[in-house]
Amino acid sequence: MACATLFEPIAIIGISCEFAGGIHMPIDLWQALEESRDLGSEIPVERTDLLSYCADTLNRDNGEFKRKLIRRGYFLPTSVLDTFDAERLEIMACATSFEPIAIIGMSCEFAGGIHMPIDLWQALEESRDLGSEIPVERTDLLSYCADMLNRDNSEFKRKLIRRGYFLPTSVLDTFDADYFNLSDGEAVTIDPCHRLLLMKFVHLIEDAGYTLEKMRGSRTSVHIGQFSNDHAMGSLRLKPEHRTRFLGPHILLYNASARLSYHFDLHGPNVSLDTACSSGLQAIHLGVQGLRAGEADMAVCGGINTIFTPEQLLNFSTIGAVAVDGRSRSFSIDANGYAKGIDKAATT
């Protein structure tokens, strides 16, 4: 395998050059090499800056410097250096850098019963608050918060969050393993984030008017931002007998994007990234760059975050980064942190 990849032939499909001695194309250079032609010359007469400098230096009484001063080299004509088609370059830059990017499909899953983009749009129009107290079914978080509040630490009590944006456990636990051709044993070890990504990818493609069959083999890139890795934290606390052979790969963040590309046979760049709160926006930024660079014909970009262990609440409560009342107030004088939540959004 190593030999097969290490010594695979590499094809040079294009060459351009510009050298002294009238060499404008590779064929010119080839002929000059065959003829052993000297491409050097005295300093060209049009290079008055260099000539006057040399003349001034030679007039000085420094024999050592005079001996070292070069009078010959390899110079491009000033006509080559001064020729610049700014208009053509500007047209090319516009064509590659500012071509409009069309969003042809969207899917999402947010707290407050937001299952589709239209739900989110309506909630925004109505200025609806999608947050809630910690759901009663999240006994792990509730018991943790109760334990923390019973401790004698008034500062920590003040910072401990009791409100956020939570998906129902029914959404997180619902997964059709057969549909995705996965065994029940494997499906249960997959990060719930990645299970949600698989399901929402199907919705995304349907919203874009494509079929999964049409997507297979396409030059589609996948860029997914994932902030938390709660699944790994929880898995490390499992007893050895509960750790299956599937667990190892399924707790790694690279699977956020890799699983989508592999499962749906997408042939394009694949990136999982974590840039904290900007992960989703960074994913879109990279996807757009890839489209404009010709790396892919289509890009799937998204972000996801989940809260499965109390540690995430603890860490962000301790540093005071999370709003105690569970509300984000961007640019407001009343802002006291941001609201934690479980969410997923993607665009094509």
TrEMBL record:
Reply yes or no: does the keyword Repeat apply.
no
Under SMART domains, the record lists: PKS_KS (SM00825)
> In what residue span(s) does the Ketosynthase family 3 (KS3) domain sit?
98-348
Keyword Transferase among UniProt keywords: yes
This chain belongs to the protein called: Ketosynthase family 3 (KS3) domain-containing protein
Q: Which UniProt keywords apply?
A: Phosphopantetheine, Phosphoprotein, Transferase
Q: Note the InterPro entries from the entry.
A: Ketoacyl_synth_AS (IPR018201), Ketoacyl_synth_N (IPR014030), PKS_Beta-ketoAc_synthase_dom (IPR020841), PKS_NRPS_Biosynth_Enz (IPR050091), Thiolase-like (IPR016039)
The organism encoding this protein is: Rotaria sordida
Give the GO terms filed under biological process for this record.
fatty acid biosynthetic process
Q: Pfam families, alphabetically?
A: ketoacyl-synt
